[in-house]
Amino acid sequence: MNYASILILLFLAVTFIQSGYDKVSDWKGNVGWLKEHFAQTLLRNSVPLALFIILALELVAGIFCVVGSIQLLTNGERNYGFYGAVFACITLIFLLFGQRIAKDYDGARTIAIYFIPAVMAVYWLG
């Protein structure tokens, strides 16, 4: 049993499902803050669409990570966990792109910290 992979998948699941929940529960507040955050960038007119894309990616990643954890625990299969880790990496790359465009280097650094375990999961489960 690959306990490290299960723990990373659970970490990613909590991260992305909670983040998705936050976006849904305070959509208006998130859009307002992000419009300000991206006011001086090429993303300024695309904030609601970009936020929706990120929300969808986060939920897909989170759900795949939950299902992948269960799959690893029950039958040792890795495909859903792998997909969850890949979607997590894609989501984090999108988020990193946004932070770099906004010149929020501290935010970009934080995303890089999340990227490390996500890539480890892709490697271990691939």
UniProtKB/TrEMBL annotation:
Location relative to the cell: Membrane
- Organism equals Flavobacterium agri
**What are the TM regions of this chain, as residue ranges?**
46-68, 80-101, 107-125
Entry-linked InterPro entries: DoxX (IPR032808)
Major location (coarse): membrane
**What does the UniProt keyword field contain?**
Membrane, Transmembrane, Transmembrane helix
Residue span of the signal peptide, if any? none
The topology of this chain with respect to the membrane is: Multi-pass membrane protein
GO CC terms, sorted = membrane
Q: What is this protein called?
A: DoxX family membrane protein
